[in-house]
User: Fold this.
Amino acid sequence: MHELSIARSMLDIVREQMARHGAEKLRSLKIRVGEMTAVEPQALLFCFEACTKDTPLEGAALDIEVVPLAGRCEECGTEMRIEGYSAQCPACRSASVEHISGHELAIVSMEVDKTDA
Assistant:
């Protein structure tokens, strides 16, 4: 289950950023996960909750945006949703299609409470 290592890595980044900016409580974390990353959103949510249990991060909401696989035809420029791993341009039938989304795995934002300074 690689979702566990992904959750741990994300939380390492979150903790580092919270310390850097004087934040004491994580309210929410928004991430973007491409459908081709082989990350199962429900498994990632489970791992996130397990990794934050009994820590100062417990109770934070995890918002997962799943990004569909999409492409752009290199011949005519048409953008399309790629389904079933078939990447043929619906406009000109070219097979020269560049993937433009669906492979991302990124922290988008986090909502925190800052310490009083």
